[in-house]
Structures are given as C-alpha cells and as structure tokens.
Amino acid sequence: MIRVVAIQFNHAGKMYDFNAGDLELQAGDRVVVDTERGAGLGTVVAVPAEKDPALFPNPLAMVRRLLGPDDEKTLIHHAQCEQEAREFCLRRIKERAMDMKLVRVEYLFDGSKAIFYFTADGRVDFRELVKDLAHTFHTRIEMRQIGVRDEAKMVGGLGICGRELCCASFLRDFQPVSVKMAKEQNLALNPTKISGQCGRLLCCLDYEYEAYCELRKNFPKCGKRACTTSQCGVVEKMNLLTGELALRQGDGKLVNVHVGDLVDESRLETPFKEQPPVRERETQHPRERKSREQATQQQARKQRPPQPSPQQEPSAVVVAEPPTISQAVAEDGKQPAEGQKPKRKKRNRRHGHRKQQDKQPDSPSQE
C-alpha cells in the first residue's frame, strides 16, 4: 500500500495523484513535487489515503518537501520576472502588429522555462517574437495558444448572477453545453442572457439539466388534453418546479391544477362534454376587436372581383334600325303610290363590304 495525495497546481485546476511517502500533509499545504517539466509548486487538496499500487499503471511521482522560506523568496523573484516578461512581450506584439492577445506569463518553479499563454483567431507566426524573448530573458520560451474558456478561467471575474465565475472558483473540467439545455429549462433564448464572459453558453446550464429532464417525464406536453376528476382542458403552460399546470377549458378560462391530480380521461365515469367557445367579441379587448374587424374588411376588399374602369367600359353596340315610311318620304321628297311599298334608301354595308354592282359583259381583250 502507498500513501496517495491529490495535488492541484492552479486554483480550481485539475487534480493529480502523487506519492506522499512519509510526509504528513494537510489540505491546503503547499508542496514541491516532481513533474515531467521539472520541479513544480502545488497545493494539497485532500489528506493522503492508502491505496493499492496496482490501481496505477505507471509509478507515481514523489512529493519532495513542504514549501520553505527559501522557496517563498524564489516565488517572489519569479513573480517579478513574470511581470517584466509580460510588459516586454506586450510591447513587442504591438510593434510587430501581431494578431494575438497575451493572457498570462508563467515561470516554472525552477526557472528553467517561461510559458506565455495567448489567444488568437487563427495561427500566428511568432518565431521572431520568441527570438526576442529568449535573447532578453535567457531562458527557454514556450508559446501556448489557449481558448476563450481557458482565458476566462485564468483571468477570472464576476458572472451575470453576481458571483465569481464557476470556472475560476470551483469548476475543474469544462462540460459540453448546448442550446437544448436552455430550451428544456424554459429559459429565454437571448444570447446576452445565456452566454458568459467568454462568449460561450453558460456552464451552469448543465447543472440542473438532468433534473428538469426527470421532472418533465411526469408532465403532459403543451397542447395535449389533460383531465382531473373535476376539470378538463388543454395544457397551456406548466411549471416543472412547483408541479402546476394551466389548463385552457372550452369556454376560454384558465384553470391551475397540480400534476398529481391528473387522471386518465378514459377512466372517468362521466366524460366531460366540450363547451362551446365563448364569442369572440366577448373575450377580446375592444382595441383587439377593432383591429380584427379592420383586418377582416381589408381582406374582404382584396377578395372582391376587380371592377372595370371607365376607360375599359365596353362601348354600347348601336343597331341600325330600318327607316320608317315617314322618314323615307322626308328624305326623298316623293309620295309613294298606292299599293306600292316605299323604297328604302340604299346604304353601303359596313365592315368594308362593297355594294354589289350589276355585272357587265366582259370586253374583248385587245391583242
């Protein structure tokens, strides 16, 4: 059996297992441990516990010692170097007009390497920048690109709830978050309401998602019909936390019932009869009624057949009637004899037809 202790290197960071050996450690102690990058400074999260070595495929690194007075001086010196390196790097980034944002500078405990954390939209060519940093500080330089979530975790701040950011206070790992979680919890899909300082969806949307899914299993869906022993209607809205439902009855009234009072409609001895809906004019506000009537009138006007304009009105067809006897006498000036019918005035036909003339014998052709 070996004594295993959990240690974190950053606040709310990942925990790693180390071999405590014979050291008596308590939660919150600062210790120096061996890492792949060299000596590192960490904080004890929990007291050591005895575990079977077979549970760990690789041998665990050892805890060297507790943090001493000399180590405190080393930390102060590293803090000054980090501040100088940050200011120098910011000046070089501005001079070279590089599309990157410096977030943090970290020196390893033994001073063998300086790590520069930055964010950028794409890939950045920082080879010349690394040469300037190495020539100035005479140590190994590592440029590490991180995401916006890691940036918020390092910088910290306050969320829209007024508390410290979850990722900077206690959240050790980032879980995937989707818009479906916000919909399941009946939250407004406003980007400013459901997004954090990093610009991504809030991590806290994942905290109660499973609880809401379990509660929703006992509720009918909105728009479905639900009944109790005394009332029946269509589900209008629901409150998953209090277990209350709002039912819209046939007369338009809203009734609040509890989800535990719902029964199967088929098991009711006397099924409910659908009540006729209330007249529209009675339920609507006068302003809504007026706007609805105006919309109905406009729709009726659109559905009317178009009336012909005065320019498109068909011209009246004038039918020529034959002249009467008195009109014929007035025009010719002669009185018709007895027994004779009055002659009608000869008129050419319309539509381009010519008057039929008497046929004349064909004249001999001239040769």
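The above is record 1. Record 2 follows with the same two-line structure.
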Amino acid sequence: MEENKCPHCGAEVVEGARVCLKCGALLSQPSTEPVVVANMSLDTTPAPEAAPVAQQPDVQQKRNSSKRVVALLLSALFAVALIGGGAFIILGTSESDVEESHGYAPWVDLTSHFNLDKVVDSDGHSHFNSYELTHECLPISRELIVEDEYDAVVLGTGVWVRSYPQLKKRFQRCQVKTGDLLHVTRSAGYQSGGYWSYVKVNSGRRAGKEGYIPNDYIIEQEKYDLLQRYVLTGSTNMNHRTPSKYLNAIATVLMKLEANTRHPNLDVAQLDVSPFKQHTIVTFGISDRNVAENNSLLAFVQFYNNNNDFVILGIVPGKVVNQVSQNPNGSYDIYYIK
C-alpha cells in the first residue's frame, strides 16, 4: 500500500485518505461522482435553487379553469352519491313537471285516452267537440267482462232477482240489497231494454237464490270499494238512490284516475244533467284536496237512454260546465270554465 505525506504536518497518510489522522487537515476535495448504493444511483450534487419566475396570465387562467373543472366533477359525484342513497337533489325532473308538460292537470294524465290539443280556450271559457277529443284515441266506456263466470256486488236499491227478465210478479222475484255478494254464472244478453245476467246470491237474506239481474245493478268488487270510499259516504250529493249506471260510470272514472293508489283524498259530485232525445250527458266533478292549484277535473259521460251502457266523452281540467249542445252528426259541443 503506497503512502503519502500530509502537506501541512508532514505526517505519513494512506493514499486516497481525505483527512490527516494527525493534524486533521483536509487532504482533497469531495468527489462529485455519483455514489451507488443498493443498485440505486444517488446524485449527491446539490441542485441549484431556481430563481422565482412570474406566472404568465394564460398559465394562471388554465390553472383556474382546471380547478373549476375539478370542482364541477366533485359536485356531480356528490349529487350522484346522494341520489343513490335515496335523496333527489339536482338531477332529473319531478313527476308533476312531466305531467304539466302534457298540458294536463298536474295530478293526473289521461292523454292516452283524450286528445287534449283539441280543447279551445277563449274569453275565459274552454270548449271541445266530443268526436274530436277522442279522435284516434281510446274512448272509455263500460268495460264488459268476457268471462262466463265472475264475482260481483249488488249496486243500487230496489234490485230484484227475477226468474226471467220479463216477469214482474212478486212471487216470481226476490229483492236483494246494496252490497250483497253475487256470482254471475252467464250473460243473458239484451232483453227488455237492457243487458241481463244470470246470478246466484252468495250473501244476505237471499243467499242461495238464483235468477236474472240487469247488468246496470252489477259492479265489480274493486269499483264498489271506490264508491264506498269516495261517493257513498254522505259527503257528496250522490248516494245509493243515485241511478246505478251513474254510479257505475263514476266508479270507472275513479279507476282510470287510480284513485285507490295515487289520490286518496278526492271529492266527487254530480254537477249537471243534460237530457237529449237518445242520450243524457252527465257532468261529474272530481277534485283532489291534497293539490293546492289546478286540482279540479270535469268528467263528461254520455248515457244511452234505452239501455245501461255509457261512454266517457272526456275528462278535462275544469270547475264549472256552462253548456252542452248536440250536433247533427251526433257529436256534442261542451263549454266549461277551467
């Protein structure tokens, strides 16, 4: 091993030594070569400090824009998280907004049945033609039950079960009451000015009796429950003595409004009766107590005077009917106030 001398004290030092072990003098400058440690190159040369540079306006704007984009993305993710948890805060539209876009009352939409674009508004009044309102739509009418047998309920008062439709003698018939349960076994077709069915009485004093009852006095259980809730409660001007086909019609309207599931607080009333030669037009008013504005509907129903069938001409937003007139083509012009 080659030895050298310290330039300061003359003591001998080992070659490559950086410090004299005798006087402590520095023998050489530190190497600037990288030192390899565990296969990783570590540069021991200190980096020079960079001088501060003023940011250019466009660079600052880009950074601000990036910050805004990040903020918007975070807001969107937050809203999605809330919606996923059941909260409805910023995305989408409410159901009432969708229904109002149809130009209908905010709490119901029957545009699949009626072409409400045909309603004309002028001078505070509204008007429609019964043919135009149902053009290319499905008019609502008495829904005939096609099954040979089904369960039903007696509707109306003074209902008689007859041994044959034309017979009127008391010993050949028996009276049933409103709400008595029936089992309809077959349809008897059109006789004596109306449609009849052959039934068996399943409840009440006449349980076990069989005979014929006009279809006008037969109603499905679900519709009868709606009448009990909204019409036959004593809070309206309709009761058990109201013509049964009127009650059947308003029950059909309530079914279309989904009153049993969507609108639990309805007021129902019979507003107007307009008789004509072959038909009678009856106007019903329906309002929802849970809705603050535009809560009233008018239902116009055409009844046939020679039988118990009916057709619903229209259900529209409105409060008062003004006039109903018949045209030569059989249609009706109806004027009302919204």
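The two ends are 115 Å apart (CA to CA).
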